[in-house]
Amino acid sequence: MTLRLLIAMLAVSPLALAANLGALRADEVALWAAPVEGRAVFDEHRADAAMNPASTMKLVTAWAALNRLGPGYRWRSELKSNAVQENGVLRGDLYWIGRGDPRFDSARLTELLRQLRLRGVQRIDGQLLLDKRAFSRISSADGFDGDAERVFSVPPDTHLSNLKVAWLRYFYEQGRPQVVLDPPLPAFRLDNRLQPGGAASCGDVREHAAVSISGNSIRVSGKLPPACDGTASYVNVLDNDGYAGQSFAAIWQMLGGEGPRGIAQGSTPPDARQLVRLDSEPLPQALNDINKYSNNTMARSVWLTLGAENPHSGDTVADAQLAVRSLLLERGIAAEPLQLENGAGLSRRERISARQLGAILLDAARGPYAAEFIASLPLASEDGTLRRRFAELGPRLRLKTGTLGDTRALAGYWQAPSGQRLAIVALLNSARAAQLQGALDALVGDVVERYAAQLQRQP
Predict the structure, then answer these.
(1) Rounded Cα–Cα distance for residues 322 and 305 (Å)
(2) Cα–Cα–Cα angle for 306, 310, 311, nearest 5°?
(3) What pTM did the predictor assign?
(4) Does residue 10 register a pLDDT over 70?
């Protein structure tokens, strides 16, 4: 008689079956799993240990945002002025009020300025002033200087556009490789030293095109294969205010506008009238980008928005933390051992337990915004950060991934053909984490297999 059969006959809790840790040491990993439609825990191992969750912390931010902001929440960008407008000239300063829209890009800025042109403004005879009061301060993400080439660590900002990235777009014209800067950024000169030739295929265009930046010159050199036509790579060349101002100037000129005379920061005066307002797409669109592709900058923007829209102390970061902790209290979820820094998991300090994150997953799946929350998670073997993982389980498995140098993490749901769902959290903190991703995947697979077997045994 097998152990599994004996357990089935005696109706012993599946917790009696220890998780198969495989190559994982017991002190490296924390595990928790429970059915969404049930009340008992299915499996756990060190479930109360404080662990670095890496990007699975984004699930906490997404859950809090849906509950505190609502799925209909939109970020509003505005242009205001108290200057006189006559004969197509705005005779004074223009105020751009930014609120940290995480998906704001060149297309949105173009629409904002197109509407300004439709109001009859052709020349801005004053400065462009950035009103940045929505965020009193930006939460930290310290300790990643050495990871600059491996993690996307652009900080959030009230006027973040295109994630502060300028694209080098490559193409061929009359047999010669060309490159353009998108957006054009008037302060920079593009020095194209590319030569035709090279490999038969393109692969990663950065292997063929070397980019160097000196002052206001961006030099691109190398041998560009014709197969690289239509590819792109990004450069990070300006601070947030500089990028916003340069993007504004480039697009405004493209639309036939003149000015402004300069760019600075400034608070919108009380008597300023609204010239243009533009609302973002609803919150779930941002959450899909954040969770499927693990975008740190966008997650941090949502986190700060929680503080900005739920003001208590006036400190955006402290108010964001309070928004999460008060929600935990309302839902009866333990407040410890949660430690928050920026809500994105791009942190050496953030901590959570597998049980605490699991309780949040259960609350999310049982709540009114379950569809929006679950839809934001990557589908195994199909999209996002799970596109090449868990092929044997397929899209019935939806998991948010987490990756740092010493951390690998998985958290989400598996849905049985019968519709029953299992919430799963697996957190690995170890100096050898990079070598153990396969073992962590196997651990999650083992939990799903055992849960599926239990469902089959049920009458």
Answers:
(1) 12
(2) 120
(3) 0.91
(4) no
